[in-house]
Amino acid sequence: MLEARALTKRYGGLLALDKVSFQLKRGEIVGYLGPNGSGKSTTVNIVVGLVEPSAGSIALDGRTMAEDPRAYKARIGYVPEEPYLYTHLTATEYLTLVGRLRDIPEATLEKKIAKLLTLLQLDDSRYSTMAAYSKGMRQRVLLAAALMHNPDLLVLDERFSGLDVNAGLLFRALLTLLASEGRMILFSTHRFDMVEKLCSRVVILSSGRLVAEHAMTAFGAGESPTLEETFVRVTKPPDFMPVAREIVETIGGR
Amino acid sequence: MKTLVRHFFYGLFDFGVLSEAGSDALKRVLIGIIAAMLTFGLLLARILVSAISGPAAVSVTPPPYHAAFEAFVIGFPMLIVAFATLLVSQSLFPDETDFRVLLVLPVSRRVVFLSKLAALALFAAIFIVAAHTAMLPLFAIISGGQARDSLTTRFAAHLVASVSGSALVVMALIAMNGAVLVMVPRSRLRAAATAMRSAMLCAMVLCIPLAAKLPATAPLLAAESRSMYLVPPAWFLGVEELLLGHRSPYFTRLAGIAAITSAVSLAVAAGTYLRLYRRFDRIMMRPAHASVGSRWWNVPLFERVNRRHANGAAITSFIRMTLERSPLHQGVFVAVAACGAGVILNSLLGVKALPRLRRTYEDELAAVLTWAPFALMFAMTIAVRAALVLPIEPRANWVFRMTEHDSARVDQVEAVVRSMIRLGVVLPLLILLPFQWVMFHGQAIASTAVTLAAGIVLVEIEMSEWRRLPFTCSYMPGKRFVGLTALVGFTVFVVFTSVGAGLAYSSRMHPIGALIFLAILGTIVWERRLRRARLTRHTPLLFEDALPTEIEPLRLSVD
Fold first, then answer.
1. Would you say A21 and A210 are in contact if contact means Cβ atoms under 8 Å apart?
2. Is B403 an 8 Å CB contact of chain A?
3. What is the H or E stretch that residue A6 is in?
4. Model's pTM, two decimal places?
5. CA distance, residue A108 to nearest chain B CA (Å)
6. pLDDT, tens digit, for every residue of B465-479?
7. Interatomic CA distance for residues B268 and B264, integer angstroms
8. What is the CATH topology of the domain spanning A2-80+87-210?
9. Which residues of A5-30 are buried (b: 16+ CB within 10 A; e: fewer)?
């Protein structure tokens, strides 16, 4: 189980996260929702060990990251928000680099890479540098890199953009299967439809604070509000109609 | 169009690897380079004044001597402009991003291309003006005593000839890059452009000592030697003489070569620009099937990776692939390494018998060959370090940050040091070993072993505070006072090369001495390695470069 305990992060005077606590149990896919600047990426960066919290802690099966960072990081797979990769490398070279950094034995690594590239339909481009890849292809490489070491926790930061329909369907099936095998998946996104289709629980953040946490079954059944309605209620976004009207007026209107 | 020119002009200074702070620092460094150029010009003028007025006065007045100095004054700006143009050679033509971003706006292709050309012209003009300004005092001194023409006439002719020379350099580089862009398939374009850029950079650096020898070409000019037909500044010297009305057949031929090469360069540059203009979509948007991994030399035949050293192997192959494929990193490595080769070439060009010291030509040559590996190792270790420090795709470093842990760190830093020893110490020794063998025969073995050990000591000292993974940390140039860094570097160079050459010489003469030196140097290496491993285990890696935090008091008070 992943346990975030009162996570707080300050950047100078700015409070990006304010005592955020949540849990992610084995076999769960948790949707992590929030408007821009709500602290989603900061949480993700803390969970994957890229940023240290100003206060609070993160623990995986009761052991905090500070206790044994190596063991903690070895159990996490991460697909970042933007496909930041070393584009002068080929997919095979990049995956070999990541595999070695993750201490995967060489013989296993070679086979895994070959198989993953074939399954993710990157086989034809395996010898091309990733500079020539489309965004969708780069995302598939990142997914392969995140899964290669068979992680217990998969952290997805706004995936599924840039993927074609088939790849999107494959990702959904893959995530469902991974969760059914007892892996934990934290899915940070803006997309309600993906959360509704994939997740078993949702955590909503606003201005660095956790404002709602519900099981997906709580939404849209009978009289209960939908996820989107709940999101609007708890995050209290401004009324955008006047802004839209002003934009139309600014460009000249008709 | 003004906006686009400005956009392209600023784009010339964007190397894509520097943070915002790094880019600001780079601008300061560029301003510093221009200032250094002006200072260098004044320094040269000062040296020439001393040479002319000193006890062993050198005359620059007779025509061949004067012409040789003129060739130098023309050649220096050509070299500077060549370096500057090569530095921005990745941006000489509108690229795919320009195509995608600008052509969807109501901007015509003509405006995009003209703006790019205007930005390039502006960039070249800045360096042409700065380099010619730097040479102005020197020109005034060497033209001062000329009775044949008035100073104003000479100056005008010189300016036309010299600026034409610098313009030729810009055009030639545009032509070469353009030819590669148009002719090479896109799948091979990156590799071809990188290799060409590195080769040109290397050639240019090696030209520096040759350019410095231009004032000594007076006898060749006096003898109307054909070898000067291979010296571009001499071509424009011919142009200058022709403009001044001195129509000797020799200078006319030189001017003819200048005219032909300029015309060819202009035609090729214009032709490639025109072709790109007409078929921009086809050339820039050709599908890329860059195949690099399937080639046999990319198969790691000798890379035995066991699990204990997997992290080190990851870093080693990352270094190899980046230096192979990144134009910037390869360029920095080649340029700095070529500086070392240039210094050695300069020393070899200056080898002559010294009868007063009873030293023959062979003695002097042996001394240079003993010293050369140390000079080359010094330059190449700095070259490797400079290349490793520069980041590539800084935001992709999360994968290293995510997998960092204590034991991996030691293995990774060890891999960096090993790569540095291979490229900075073993490679230069292998390059120079054949020459050493021809000169010293079997004795070369002892001196090479000691040289290798000394090189490893140098690497250990250079890397003692190393806390980065190659290409992963943001970079801020010019953090320390450049003058102080240069002074420290020069001092280390002098000490390392002098002491090293002494050790190598003694090892050749006394094989037992070689064993003692090896034992001492080996102990130093062992001690440094232990210390580095301790430090690495307890110090986190650096992924964000920052200005030094420590305050250095000036100690102006007498208390």
1. yes
2. yes
3. strand A2-11
4. 0.76
5. 11
6. 888 899 998 887 767
7. 6
8. Rossmann fold (3.40.50)
9. bebbbeeeeebbbbebebbbeeebbb
